[in-house]
Amino acid sequence: MLPNPAQTDFSSDELDAIRAQFPILTERVNGHPLVYLDSGATAQRPQRVLDAERDFVLRRNSAVHRGAHWLAAEATEEFEDARATVARFVGARPEELVWTSNATEGVNLVAQSIAEASLDPAADPRVRLAPGDEIVVTELEHHANLLPWQRLARRTGATLRYLPVSDEGEVEGIDEVIGERTRLVAFSHASNVLGGYSPVERIVARARSVGALTFLDSCQAVPHAPVDFGALGVDFAVFSGHKMLGPTGIGALYGRFELLDALPPYLLGGSMITTVTMDGAEYLPPPQRFEAGTQRISQAIALAEAVRFLDELGMERVAAHGERLGARLAEGLAGIPGVRVLGPGPGAPRIGLASFVLEGVHAHDVGHVLDERGIAIRVGHHCAQPLHRRLGIAASARASTSVYSTHAEIDVFLEGVAEAAEFFGVAGTREVLA
């Protein structure tokens, strides 16, 4: 039974039907039912996604864009249908969606291509950087949306600046930091640590006013809410398959076609050329220009099936479900003495994710206690060391949800955190959210 899109959140019967499609959720850990609250790192996959990839490999497995036989034609058609399906899901045209191995590759693709273009005086000035230009990021960023821009700045002589964040993780200084020398602004759509949304419209508007490009890390937004990159007005964006019920080894880069067409290729090899001589080569237009070598064919097909699954659930309802779970996480954690909840305060929008610190207790120890109870969360710095440093902490514990997560699981998690607080002798009376 699939949900009724006219409703907002999922009913208990609907959630049961959704969960029944995820085989791994029947597993037990240390004698306890698995409570999987690490979807922000990697989401689980429904049976139909597993079946879609397996069916392709069993029945139509072949190289794409390079064979004249029936299998190659079928594989190519299904591969490009997958591109169209995923592109439509994020408000893009098929020619604006480049398959990558993950979102990290997408960030590096754009950064490296801009570095290459910056060496060519004949390249489109929109995708060139020079000494004195500025790249702007935020203090929120995952390392994958920071390190490539650091290297790009070093290679081009540009200056890297950043938008600071408040104690609650709100991006500040937009008008002050993004200025006339800014050429590129790279920022996250939703924080993988704090769960709050960035002010995308404000940042894009400010960047446009000074003629700067925008690059959006949408890994934590695309799986959880309706996203339309065209409507948002961003120039580039990335997201990954394994966070949105799809397989690992597949991600996508969105880029406005005219900008993709202005960039030189990142990887060189087969299937991305028109003509090759011993002295040089001419390249295909996007997206094939950026898809050298054998592609992630079965993974792309499985990701398209994950997109169809999410579409059937209804992304408005997926968003409502996640927001309610996120609010329950934040409120429940705030009611446990000794717990510091990171990110937006009560009532502020957040995805179904909350990170926290238990006073005097290392996040890894909290994670171990929860794991003994079958509760899977993420602990550490979540590939966001500068943000943790800004917040005055070395590490945090993070619970993150997906479409299959339930309010009952949140209650089990909150009980586990409260028990951990008692186990480690954190002072106070337990007040788990009722």
Describe this entry's structure for a reader.
The chain has 434 residues and is of the alpha/beta class. The protein has 2 domains: 12-45 and 315-423, Alpha-Beta Complex (Aspartate Aminotransferase, domain 1); 50-311, Type I PLP-dependent aspartate aminotransferase-like (Major domain) (Aspartate Aminotransferase, domain 2), CATH 3.40.640. Helices cover 37% and strands 16% of the residues. The chain contains 14 helices and 17 strands. It has helices spanning 12-19, 47-59, 70-89, 103-117, 147-156, 174-177, 200-209, 229-232, 257-262, 297-313, 315-334, 363-372, 385-390, 407-423; strands spanning 28-29, 32-33, 35-36, 97-100, 134-138, 159-163, 182-188, 213-217, 236-240, 251-255, 273-276, 281-283, 339-341, 353-358, 375-376, 378-380, 396-400. The strands form 5 sheets. Strands 4-10-9-8-7-5-6 form a 7-stranded mixed β-sheet, with helices on both faces. Strand 11 (273-276) and strand 12 (281-283) form a beta hairpin. Helix 2 runs antiparallel to helix 10, helix 3 packs across helix 10 (297-313) and helix 11 (315-334) runs parallel beside helix 14 (407-423). It is globular and about 70 Å long.
The description of the largest β-sheet is: 7 strands, mixed
CA(first)-CA(last) distance: 29 Å
CATH topology group of the largest domain: Aspartate Aminotransferase, domain 2
Count of domains:
2
Rg from alpha-carbon coordinates: 22 Å
Low-confidence stretches: 1-6, 429-434
Structural class: alpha/beta
- Name the average pLDDT: 95
Helix content: 25-40%
DSSP strand (E) fraction? 15-25%
Q: Please give the CATH architecture of the largest domain.
A: 3-Layer(aba) Sandwich
Number of helices: 14
How many extended strands?
17
CATH homologous superfamily heading of the largest domain: Type I PLP-dependent aspartate aminotransferase-like (Major domain)
| Strands side by side in the biggest sheet | 4-10-9-8-7-5-6
CATH C-level of the largest domain: Alpha Beta
Give the CA-based shape: globular
Keywords: Pyridoxal phosphate, Transferase
Protein name: Cysteine desulfurase
Domain Aminotransferase class V: 35-413
Family: Belongs to the class-V pyridoxal-phosphate-dependent aminotransferase family. Csd subfamily.
